[in-house]
Fold:
Amino acid sequence: MFNREEKKEINTKFWAGFKTYCYNKRIKRRWLMSRISIKSTQLKFYADHEKALVLFQIDNKSEEKRKEIYSYFYAFRKLWDKEAGEGLVWAENYDEIEQKTLSAIYFELKGVNMYKKEDYEKIYSFFASKMIILEDIYLEYKDVLSYQIAQI
Structure:
């Protein structure tokens, strides 16, 4: 398909395009991403040749701890699902984007390809709208989750 250098160039252009999209749509938000205060977790954008994801990723070297952390999030599932609206997916064991198994709470947009420019607008719109939802939920629950997870 593409060699390593071509993928790198496409990837760079894709993310620069997302930055421009946010600027043009007046989305004046500095995404939290890995700057969240709950250990072993991060908010993440992901796109490949078949899908795009906006996810809350939970990974820990210890499978037992990862699952325990996930269980704290899962305790809030009804509230999060209500606040997120339709489409929030919960997966205790998810291995479709990393070389390892992690836990994920995510929105997925299927049938898009980050290597096709005609899909960029759809992916960018999905990223912006869904990350705002996940960040807002995180900000609302971060204190209680941080406290609980710090006890592990």
